[in-house]
Amino acid sequence: MPHESPLISVIVIGLGLAFVLGTLAQRLRISPLVGYLLAGVVVGPFTPGFVADPRLILQLAEIGVILLMFGVGLHFSAKDLIAMRAIILPAAIIQISLSTLFGMGVAFLLGWSAGVGIVFGLSLSVASTIVMLRALQERRMLETDRGRLAIGWLVVQDIVTVLVLVLLPALAGVLKDLGTDQVHAVNIDAISRALAITLGKLTAFVIVMFFLGRRLIPRILHYIAHTGSRELFRLAVLTVALGVAFAAAELFGVSIALGAFFAGMILSESPLSQRAAEESLPFRDAFAVLFFVSVGVLFNPSVILREPVALALVVAVVIIGNGGAVYFIVRKFGYPLGTALFLGAGFAQTGEFSFILANLGIGLGLMPENARDLILGASIISILANPFMFALAERLRRRGEPQPAPGVEEAPAKQEPVLEPTGLSGHAVLVGYGRVGRLVGDGLRHDGVPLLVIENAPEAIRLLRNQGVAFLEGNGADKRVLQAANLPAARILFVAIPEAFEAGQIVEQARRAVPGLHIIARAHIEAEADHLRQFGANTVIIGEHEIARAMLAFAHQRPDMAAPAALPPASNDAAPDAVPG
Ligand code: AMP
C-alpha cells in the first residue's frame, strides 16, 4: 500500500531509477521512455520495495508539463494559432467525436451503458501533450508546419478537455441514466450555466493575457534583464511560467498546460525575453521525465493478466482508432501523405488528460473502477508503441509517396523536407547554417568550393533557398540525411552546430561511413572537444579559444602592448594519423 514518502526521496529515487533504466534502454537501442515508465512501475505501489507517493510524483510531473508547454509557447505566435483555426478547430473536434464513438463501441462490448461509454470514449480521445512534444522535439519538428499543426490540435484538445471537466459534474445525472430505463430530467439551466461560466472564464483569461500580460510580462523581464543578474532573470522567467500557469488554473479554471502555453506565447513576441527564456529552462527535461515515471507509478500491471481482451480493445481504440481518425482527417483537409501519417502516429497515444478525465468520471460514479486500469494500461502501451508508430509512418510514407518528377516543386504550404540524395561531388558538407555556418558557407562560396548545407531550422532553410545554396533539410544526426549528402565523394565535412551531443553523433556516423574524410567540428569547452575528437573529428575549434586569440591579437597591434607573446596554441588539431583511417 502506498505510504507517505518525503519529496526528496521521490525526486532522487524517481529520477535516479529513470536515469539508470533510461540509459539501459538506450543501450539496448530502445526508447529511453521505456526505461522511465519501467522506473515508475518499480517505485509504484503494485511492485514490492520502495513506494513513491503517486500524488507527489504527479505534482512534480505537472511542473514538467508547465515548463514544456511554456517552451512550446515561446516558439508559437498567436498569429499562427489564429491563422490555423479554420483547420484545427473542425479537425480536432471531428477527431474527438470519432475517437469517443470508438471508445463507446468498446464500452458497449464490455457491457457498459451509453453514458459510461461517452465518458470512457472521451477519456481515450485526447493525446498526451508531453509525449507529442517530446516526439516533435526529438525530430526537431516543433517549428515546422507539421509541428504547428500538431500543437494547434493539442491546444484544441486541451480546451475541449477543460470544457468536459467542467461540464461532467453538471451532466453526471443524465449520463448515469443514459441507456437505462430511467429518465432523468435534463437540467438545461445547470448545464448552460456551467458552460457559460467556463467559456466566460476562458475568454476572461485570454483577454487578461493579451491586454495585461502582453504589456506587463515583457516589461518586467526587460527590467530584470537590465539589472544584469542572470540569477534574477531566470527566477523571473520561472515565476512567469509557473505563476501564469497556476493563476490560469486557480482563477480561471483553465488547465495549467494551457496557461503555460499562453505565457510562453506572449513572451515569444519579445526577442530578448525569448532568447533568455530559452536558456532558462534547464529543468524542463528532468521534470518531463518525472511525468513518465508518474504514469508507471499509477499503472497496475496485473490488468494485463486480468483483462487481456478488454485491454487489447482499448489499445486498439487509442492506436488504430485515434491514429487512423487523425490520419483520415488530415488527408481530407488536403495535406500530403507524409503529414497525415506523421500526425496519425503522433496522436496514436493517450496520457495525462485521459487519467484526469478517468479519475473524475470514476469519482462521479460514472465509470467503474477497472476502467481506470484499462485506460492507464492502454496509455502506457500506446506510449511505448509510439516510437514504432513513427517508424511505421515513415515506412508507409516512403512506400506510398510517389517520387516527385525532377524539377517539379511542391506548393510551399505542403512542403515535405527536401531529402533528395545530392548529385554533388568534391563538395564541402556543412552541418548548421547559423551564426557560424553562414560565415563558413560565405567563405567556401567565395573560394568556389561546391557546397551542400544540412539544416533543419525553417528560417535557415528559407535563407538557403533565397541564396540558391544546395541543402538537405533535416537533422544532421539522422543517418538518412548523412547518406543523402554523399559523404564518400565529399572533400570535407564542417560540423558547425552548437550542441556537442548531436555533433558527436554526426561525427561518429560520418567517420564510420568514410574513414578518410576530413572533419572539422565546433565546440565550446575542452571536454566537448575531447568528445568530438574521440568520435573521429580531425580538427575541433573551440569558439571561446578563438575569441581569446583574436582579442590578444588585436591588443598586440597597439604600440603600448608588448610584442606578441605566446598566444594560446592554435585550435585543437588532432594529429591526422591519430584519426581512425
Ligand atoms: P548557430 O549556433 O547560430 O551557429 O546556429 C546553429 C545552426 O545549426 C542553427 O541554424 C540550427 O538550426 C542548426 N542545427 C543545430 N543542430 C542541427 C542538427 N542536428 N542538424 C541540422 N542543423 C542543426
List keywords for this structure.
581 residues, mainly alpha, Rossmann fold, binds adenosine monophosphate, single chain, Na+/H+ antiporter like fold, seven-stranded mixed β-sheet
Characterise the protein shown here.
With 581 residues, the chain is mainly α. The protein folds into two domains: 6-399, Na+/H+ antiporter like fold, CATH 1.20.1530; 428-556, Rossmann fold. 67% of the residues lie in helices and 5% in strands. The chain is built from 23 helices and seven strands. The protein has helices spanning 7-27, 32-43, 54-74, 78-109, 114-125, 129-138, 145-177, 188-227, 230-252, 256-267, 271-279, 284-298, 303-306, 308-332, 337-346, 352-363, 370-400, 435-446, 458-467, 479-484, 500-513, 526-534, 543-556, and strands at residues 428-431, 451-455, 470-473, 492-495, 518-523, 539-542, 572-573. The chain has a seven-stranded mixed sheet, with helices on both faces. Helix 19 (458-467) links the parallel strand 2 (451-455) and strand 3 (470-473). The N and C termini lie far apart (59 Å). 44% of the residues are buried. Residues 404-416 and 575-581 have low confidence and may be disordered. The structure holds adenosine monophosphate. The site of adenosine monophosphate has 20 residues, from helix 18 and strand 2.
